[in-house]
Specification:
Number of strands: 26
Structural class: alpha/beta
Largest sheet: 6 strands, antiparallel
Radius of gyration: 23 Å
Number of helices: 18
Strand content: 15-25%
CATH topology of the domain at 11-215: Rossmann fold
CATH architecture of the domain at 11-215: 3-Layer(aba) Sandwich
């Protein structure tokens, strides 16, 4: 079993969480086993461009138990980290359920991540096994893992899902699931890590986030289950199961709420609208891109508006205009605020008036405390400043414990977001201290993109900031000062370069701005990103740059 250094709340706070029932001693394995049993006859469906794959949750859970049994027979024990990089599929759900059943620490990796990200996650998490699709994108990730095996000291097993060619070191997924499922009794510590999530935050290197059993159970039971229980129909989810939101709304909460599971492994507004009517499903929750594209589609009818009903939005900037437009069409849109390290800080309520839903990011969730940290480091119950949080669903620190020092202040997590909280407990996020771009709910590290662009011979200096985007919430805007003798590289040239570096497509900048003078800087010489963000918001790019 792998041991991680975790951050424990103060004893008085732990006692409060237990007394309130937010920490009940339940583990993710306990919760999921009960939920899957009670919803065993519910439908599990994956909708892809090739059609629909439909089965029962009982069948998916049985496949998952075979995954867990196969891993145990190969020496994986409770507490061992096991990684997977899978798009929304039957196999992804079975792996997720199987790892929970086996008591492993889940290490989900974004299906959009490139090879360097994947190998970093495997090395940092000390994963003993990884399950991955083949072929993947450029086909290089399995080969990269194989070639770097000597750098991945803990990695013992590589499993490949799919019919593509496999290196000799890889084991086919069918071999993993060949054994009959065993039902072993496992004792797990609720305070121990259940999942290692990933966030780029403000650093170029992804940071591993330790989410304990008790934190995830509190998140599911106190926050997400009540939110989804209000729905009268199932949700068509396109959120990737490798993301915390996707885990919750796609795989964990529906069985608990007694809902069918409908996953989609791609996004096409027209197809979503058709599936909504065919299966009487809700859609449009998640990143604002999803609701926006549905409402923009000429095939979206009042019947679709009725099916959407309530859209819970987050993961990217949500405009007042989108909330108001939805309301005019009979769709109640609410905003929420959270992150990988603290999944639900505040959530909107469909009963709130339009003015509140449009102007705030919802009300503080059950058990969550928020304070405002001023520039002197003092904490305040209300006001405007850096938002700091704590709660029963807060993470237990980073995989690299050295990162915890700057992340916490007297037990409070520093979000790096600037915002306010009022006397009623409503939170409004105004800006970010952290230098990230949130594109369709995915965090993109500006410094990682800057490092990639700086390696181009045409680039003398570069700064990347978030620019507003009606489709994705935000996109990367790169301000480039060209090297002597060169012009500013075009977007096609930049994309060609980023492909060679293996940078994931969702991280590519979508807008280029030329700078022929130095960037605005602080007295210490640091680029004033706030000034660049203002430029990106106020004036549109000219001639594609």
């Amino acid at each position: 079993m792998t041991t991680f250094t975790t951050v424990e709340p103060e004893p008085e706070l732990c006692a409060r969480y237990r007394a309130e029932g937010w920490w009940s001693g339940e583990t993710l394995r306990d919760l999921l086993a009960s939920a899957l049993h009670s919803s065993r006859e519910r439908v599990f469906a994956v909708h892809s461009r090739d059609g629909m794959h439909r089965m029962s949750l009982r069948d998916v859970a049985d496949l998952g138990r075979r995954v867990g049994t196969g891993l145990r027979r190969l020496g994986i024990v409770p507490g061992d980290p096991v990684a997977f990089q899978l798009s929304n599929s039957v196999e992804a759900a079975a792996v997720f359920y199987g790892l929970v059943h086996a008591g492993a620490v889940l290490v989900p990796i974004s299906h959009a991540a490139g090879s360097s990200y994947v190998t970093h996650a495997l090395r940092t998490s000390q994963a003993r096994a990884v399950i991955i699709e083949s072929p993947r994108g450029d086909g290089a990730i399995v080969e990269e893992i194989t070639s770097r095996h000597w750098q991945l000291e803990k990695l013992e097993h590589l499993f490949v899902v799919g019919d593509g060619a496999k290196p000799s070191a890889a084991i086919g997924f069918g071999t993993l699931t060949a054994s009959e499922a065993e039902h072993n009794q496992i004792r797990l510590d609720p305070a121990a890590p259940a999942v290692i999530g990933w966030t780029s935050g403000s650093t170029a290197t992804p940071k591993g986030v330790l989410l304990s059993h008790r934190a995830l159970c509190a998140e599911i039971r106190q926050h997400m289950a009540p939110l989804l229980a209000e729905r009268t129909r199932g949700l068509l989810s396109t959120s990737p199961v490798s993301h915390v939101t996707g885990m919750l709304v796609s795989l964990l909460v529906p069985p608990l709420a007694g809902h069918d599971v409908h996953l989609m492994d791609y996004w096409d507004a027209g197809d979503v609208l058709e599936l909504m009517q065919t299966h009487a499903l809700a859609a449009g929750s998640g990143a604002p891109l999803f609701l926006q594209s549905l409402l923009d589609d000429p095939r979206c009818t009042p019947e679709h508006h009725r099916l959407i009903d309530v859209a819970a939005l987050g993961g990217a900037a949500v405009t007042r205009e989108l909330i108001e437009r939805a309301d005019a069409l009979g769709v109640t849109a609410v905003k929420g605020y959270g992150c990988t390290v603290h999944p639900s800080i505040s959530l909107g309520n469909s009963a709130d008036p339009l003015l509140v839903r449009a102007a705030t990011d919802g009300h503080l969730c059950t058990g969550v405390d928020v304070r405002i940290r001023d520039e002197r480091g003092s904490h305040h119950r209300t006001g405007t400043g850096e938002i700091i949080t704590r709660g029963p669903d807060l993470f237990s620190g980073y995989v690299d414990p050295a990162m915890n020092t700057g992340a916490f202040d007297q037990g409070w997590y520093r979000t790096g977001d600037i915002g306010s909280v009022d006397e009623r407990g409503y939170v409004t996020v105004l800006d970010r201290l952290k230098d990230i771009i949130i594109r369709s709910g995915l965090n993109v590290s500006a410094s990682e993109v800057e490092a990639a662009l700086a390696s181009m011979p045409e680039v003398a200096d570069v700064a990347v900031v978030a620019a507003p985007d009606t489709r994705t919430g935000e996109h990367g805007c790169a301000f480039i000062r060209p090297a002597a003798g060169h012009g500013v590289p075009s977007l096609p040239r930049i994309r060609e370069h980023l492909i060679t570096l293996g940078l994931a497509k969702y991280k590519w900048p979508e807008e280029i701005r030329a700078r022929f003078t130095d960037f605005p800087r602080t007295p210490a010489g640091k680029v004033r990103k706030s000034a660049l963000r203002k430029m990106a918001r106020q004036s549109p790019a000219r001639d594609g740059t």
